[in-house]
Design brief:
It is built from three helices and two strands. It is mainly α. The radius of gyration is 21 Å and the shape is elongated.
Amino acid sequence: MTLFDAIETDEYKALEKYIKDTWGHRRSTEGGTEVYHLTETEAAQLFHDCRNWLTEELPKQRRADELEAITPEQTMLPGDDAAIR
C-alpha cells in the first residue's frame, strides 16, 4: 500500500463523510485500517472530486444551513404594485 495523494483541510470530518457516502461501497477494514480498493484512475478522480466538493459544494451547503437557521421577520409588505417594483 502506498500514499497516492493527500488533501489538507480543516474540514476533514465533512470530507470523510463525503468520501464514505460516495465511495463507501469500495471500503474495507484491514487490520483496523480503512482501505479503499480503487484503481489509479478512480483514486485520481476521487481526489479531484474531493477538492471540487471542498471548494464548490461544501461552502454552498454550509451557507444553506445558515440560511435555514434564520427565522424570517414577520413584517408584512404593502399589497400595492408600487411596493413590488
